[in-house]
Design goal:
The protein is of the alpha+beta class and about 290 residues long. The chain has helices at about 30-40, 55-60, 140-145, 145-155, 180-190, 225-240, and strands at about 5-10, 15-20, 45, 85, 115-125, 135, 155-160, 195, 200, 205-210, 215-220, 245-250, 255-260, 265-270, 280-285, 290. The strands form four sheets. Strands 1-2-3-13-5-15-4 form a seven-stranded mixed sheet, with helices on one face. A three-stranded antiparallel sheet has the order 12-6-14. β9 (about 200) and β10 form a beta hairpin. The longest helix is centred in the last third of the chain and has 15 residues, at about 225-240. It is globular. Bound molecules: fe (ii) ion. Fe (ii) ion (FE2) binds next to loops.
């Protein structure tokens, strides 16, 4: 299969698009090529895929254990490892998927002891406007820090929480009526975690900055005052969002997009309104506990 494959850069910051692959008939050589591109470019878009749910799960499992989703209401009945992201409704007018997840910059499962490796999205339908996904490269964000800053943050730790109630950098969505009860419950079920602020990628060995406005609520370390930590976190977040590190993905129907949560932050940009439909399937692959430099 590898003869017909074409790979183009998507931006200076990161990402490639790949043509000429059918993920339904993926052989080991082609998987090897995809995996290499994934590790080198941090984000991939495999165009023109016609996948049934099982094929999406099979492809995802090539990268590791595919995790069950917490939100059972919006997983596919026959495929609980696939979460539906959609603003569409059924015949009775009921929501059929998660509508507005991920609008603040984050990396998936940063609030867990073992955050995600990759997230894979399969796009079935895109709105006529909006619905793009933004990415920022946390390897190059780290590389671009001054040597002084690298030394300053080398041994610090980020404190991460799933709860928006504890986080002054994010707003609670107006569409979540039970927000306070919802986040209180999450606080009880998923205790906060600390991870190294600079993490080393388990495969590439590259260092990346590991913080996000959605999940990082504090930075901790020897002798760091709370006040200085707050300023430092603001500074690092602002730095990570500088233009040279960023790529905005405009979706085409039947794109399979995946990114490496160990070195990339992302956010959904919204900007579409029902009945303009955005409909995707998501799988998430388990990662490992982040390791410090
Ligand atoms: Fe996400």
């Amino acid at each position: 299969m590898t003869d017909k494959i074409r790979i183009n850069r998507l931006s200076e910051a990161m990402g490639v698009e790949i043509f000429g692959i059918d993920l339904n008939t993926l052989d080991d050589a082609t998987f090897g090529l995809i995996n290499e591109a994934y590790l080198e470019h941090q984000m991939l878009c495999i165009r023109n895929q016609k996948l049934d749910p099982q094929s999406l799960v099979d492809f995802s499992e090539r990268f590791g254990e595919v995790l069950p989703h917490d939100n059972l209401k919006f997983t596919l009945d026959e495929h609980p490892k696939i979460l539906v992201l959609s603003n569409d409704v059924d015949q009775n007018g009921n929501q059929i998927g998660v509508i507005d997840a991920g609008d603040a910059w984050h990396t998936d499962h940063q609030f867990k002891k073992t955050p995600a490796n990759c997230t894979i999205l399969y796009s079935l339908k895109n709105p006529s406007q909006g619905g793009a996904t933004d990415f920022t490269n946390m390897y190059t964000a780290y590389d671009a820090l001054s040597e002084k800053m690298k030394a300053r943050i080398a041994r610090l730790r980020g404190h991460h929480s799933i709860s928006k109630l504890k986080n002054k950098r994010v707003e609670i969505s107006g569409s979540r009526e039970d927000a306070i009860a919802f986040y209180k419950r999450q606080e009880r079920e998923i205790p906060d975690v600390e991870h190294p602020l600079v993490r080393v990628h388990p495969v590439t060995g590259r260092k990346s900055l590991y913080c996000s406005p959605r999940f990082t609520i504090a930075i901790k370390g020897d002798g760091l005052s709370k006040e200085h930590a707050e300023t430092l976190l603001d500074e690092l977040i602002a730095h990570s969002l500088k233009k040279p590190f960023r790529y905005r993905h405009t979706w085409e129907d039947r794109d399979v997009v995946m990114w490496d949560n160990r070195c990339v932050n992302h956010r959904a940009t919204g900007g579409y309104v029902y009945p303009d439909i955005r409909h995707l399937y998501r799988t998430t692959v388990e990662g490992e506990a982040p390791v410090a430099a």
